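Changelog-adjacent note: as of this version, every example in the card shows the full chain rather than a window. The one below runs 241 residues end to end.
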Amino acid sequence: MGAAAIDINFGCPSRFTNSKAGGAILLKEPDRIYRITAAVRRAVADEISVSAKRQLGYETTDLAMENARAVEAANASFITVHARTKVDGYHYPARWEWLGKINDVLTIPLVANGDIHSVDEFLRCREMSHCENFMWGRDAVIQPDLARQISAVQSGKVVEPMLWHEVVTVIIEMTGLMRAQPTMQDKKVLGRIKQWLAYLKRHYPEAALLFSEIRGMKQLQKADDLLWLNSTIGKELTGYK
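Full-length structure tokens:
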């Protein structure tokens, strides 16, 4: 298919996937993790990156080191570790100290993942994990500019957080990109807008109000009009140009 990189997911928590011997259940079998990763590495050209993403373990951290060494021994380019077990889910804080233990025994890069919700948490994670590379998922949509803020801190700079009307402008841009896709019907686009607003309201109070207004809408054009209104009013109130 022409992929530039392949990232093997050994962390999927889906019960269905686990019942079919895939995803996080493989964390109980370091040898299978090695064999799968090594087989993929052998099957693709050297210039294609092969990496693996996983959690600390399935139920416990007992095999955390062994699983990490298995990925490294299979000649993976790097490994991403979410600092919880599969059973932990999101019910417990990420254990960044375990990332530090794993990183200290690896020679390939370790990407830290889990509970990086802010610049302060990024700094604490960096200190405890000894990592130079980081990944976050939900917070990329909850705080669209989190990566920019963290990048600025790494460069010794400070950037102002995005204002709400700037976030709305990004939503409008995303809506346009989705509408340009032949397979994206208006109903699907509207659903994605609602889904993103549901995430954004965890960080932006304004998103909660906008979500409540758009939630029951059935027509994409009405949602578009409301987004443009929010964007325009925000610019006028802040004097933004």
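Structural remarks: Residues 220-238 form the longest helix (19 residues).
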